[in-house]
Design goal:
Keywords: Coiled coil. It is a single chain. This protein is mostly helical. It has one domain. Helices cover about 60% and strands about 0% of the residues. It contains 9 helices and no strands. Helix 2 runs parallel beside helix 7 and helix 3 runs parallel beside helix 8. The longest helix has about 60 residues. It is elongated, with a radius of gyration of 31 Å. The model has no long low-confidence stretch (mean pLDDT about 90).
């Protein structure tokens, strides 16, 4: 980028100062940018500095809460799916054992039986409406693979993870200041530019806290567009995420109850 295309970050900056800031913004990490945001806050008069820092920390808290709940939701969804799979396996396994036993006995029947794939076809012709009812040919073939084989369906094992509450879920929780680094780099650059522009203009020094408070409100509601604009997120809001987490916790509890009953019926 030529110097003529570099933004004028502050009306008092020389071309070299502008270029230096440009290079810094492009090379800095998000963590570096957040650290410098709080350093820049210290250049404001005390009465404005306090409001700006509080606004930033509130913004960070909004991001942290949302990230935490979203991670909890994803973990709960994974856990629920694991228990659903386990429940399905428990429901299916008795049928698998019946089909395997029927196939074993069929092969031992007196008289000449066809060999290879014809043996399976002959077995299905006899049992497709009884023991194998409701299962496709390919599914029954999968059932008949020995448990000792890699592809064989084995006795289902109960999932290791189960949660009664969000507090039990081990996901990273961010401090508000840490969470600000989760913003897009371009968003952090915009914040720094705003702080630079307003720092030494008394009539503008209250503007950053107002802008950050507005951005917090804007960020609170999810964007439904495929590519979110600056200071928006496609992640659901905290209230929706909390409701979804509560729903999954209830579903998990019900799945545990249903699978426990199936385990007792099968003496597992």
């Amino acid at each position: 980028m030529t110097q003529s295309n570099i933004p004028q970050y502050h009306h008092s900056y020389s071309e070299d100062e502008n270029l230096s800031i440009y290079k810094y913004l492009k090379s800095a990490t998000n963590k570096n940018l957040v650290e410098n945001i709080f350093i820049l806050c210290q250049s404001y008069p005390e009465e404005h500095q306090k409001n700006i820092i509080e606004a930033f920390l509130q913004f960070g808290k909004e991001i942290a809460d949302r990230e935490y709940l979203n991670n909890c939701y994803n973990e709960l969804l994974r856990c629920v799916n694991a228990w659903k799979k386990y429940k399905y396996s428990l429901e299916t396994y008795p049928s698998i054992m019946k089909i395997r036993e029927a196939y074993r006995l069929y092969k031992e029947e007196p008289g000449k039986l066809p060999e290879g794939s014809l043996l399976f076809d002959s077995f299905m012709a006899k049992y497709e409406k009884t023991v194998c009812a409701g299962y496709a040919y390919s599914t029954v073939q999968q059932f008949l693979i020995s448990e000792d084989k890699k592809r064989g369906i084995k006795r289902p094992k109960r999932p290791k993870d189960f949660y009664h509450s969000l507090q039990e879920i081990a996901v990273k929780q961010y401090l508000p200041k840490e969470a600000l680094a989760l913003l897009k780099k371009s968003e952090l650059e915009d914040i720094i530019i705003t702080l630079l522009e307003c720092a030494d203009a008394p009539e503008l020094q209250n503007r950053p806290s107002v802008i950050i408070s507005f951005l917090t409100s804007k960020y609170r509601f999810p964007s439904h567009k495929k590519s979110a604009k600056l200071f928006t997120s496609t992640t659901k809001g905290t209230l929706d995420l909390k409701d979804n987490c509560d729903r999954l916790l209830k579903e998990l509890k019900q799945l545990q109850k249903e699978t426990t009953q199936l385990e007792e019926e099968q003496n597992i």
